[in-house]
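At this stage, I put together a protein sequence along with its fold in token form, as given directly below:
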Amino acid sequence: MTIWGLAVANSVAAVRAGARQLELTINGIGERAGNAALEEVAVLLHVRKDSFGVDTNLRIEKLYATSRMLTEITGVGVAPNKGVVGSNAFAHEAGIYQDGILKNPLTYEIISPEAVGVPKRQLVLGKHSGRNALRSALAEIGYDPNTVELDLCYKMMSALADESKDIKSRDLLAIAHQVMHKRGGETTVAAE
């Protein structure tokens, strides 16, 4: 049995048992290992406020900025898979998750990224992405493909993802331009 990662669980259990003061650290960084991460406890207590019957009075919209500031000061990076503030906390690549997020973010996210100060969620385009995420990404850069064009873009994206792992913005733009440009003078790029 491992003890790693139990600091947050122990802190939350202490609140449930009546504790009203916790010792927490930003990003879980402290003088020793096993420190409870403030951002994880704060979000849990915020989201389940009714269940715990406590109000932290923390401004959770400052969590991400505070985490980034500590990273700059200490030079200690945040693990990508770190809850709440890690770069993957609000990133989704698998098609089923992307589709769920597009339809209803609460399907896979207990709190919105903006609520904790993260600028926005990321739908990472890669070999596991689906057509809905691709359509959404194309719309963000001003393209509105029809069904045939979307299928062609999807095939090109999948082939590229097999080679290079993930699709960069410039790759998506090149694919969209190549496919949409074939409409014969008809433009699909939204006016800016």
